[in-house]
Design a protein that fits this description.
The protein has helices at 2-30, 42-69, 90-111, 118-128, 131-142, 149-206. It has 207 residues and is mainly α. It has one domain (2-176): Four Helix Bundle (Hemerythrin (Met), subunit A). The longest helix has 58 residues, at 149-206.
Length: 207
Amino acid sequence: MNSTAFWYASRATGVVALLLLTAVFVMGILINRQGKLPGLPRFAVTDLHRNISLLAVSFVAVHVLTAVLDTYVNIPLLSSVIPFASGYERLWLGLGAISFDLMVAMIVTSLVRGRMNRTAWRAIHLTAYVSWPIAFVHSIYSSKDLQHGLMLDLAIGCALILAAAVTWRLVSAAREVPRAARVATLLDQIHHSQAQRTQRTRQGASR
């Protein structure tokens, strides 16, 4: 009975974690360079993003713990942070460990962002975006629950939402390119005009 409870708890928290992670990454993708979302001030966006991230990691932690406590299969606790350390479903659980490690790195570095070099923080934060597709593959193949029925539809829905967010961000970035090109052209023209004025001044002085 206890094993059944752990099994259900592990599956349920895993599904909720996938939903929360999707929300976290969609929000991260949609946030513009000023750190704002339409209708929300900057501080609210930052707090919301951080709190949902912490909640997602909490559900992942419970998901891992209940999977370890489930006696139906033997899953070592260390395999949750050390990839491919489990004898059961080594590949798929290993991918889950990699995703978990990347998420923890993202959360920890976000909490100490003010004390970190911006370039290092950004590199770690961008790397953490890889954790979602890894977690998605882990979810699909480590459990048969997400391979059919409503759970599969839910997983596909998360993937479509994330794909839509990525598409929107790419289109927005593409629209900014002409503006950036116009600014660069304008700066070149100003620099060229200044160079011409300098040259005429020197020629006048030499006469």
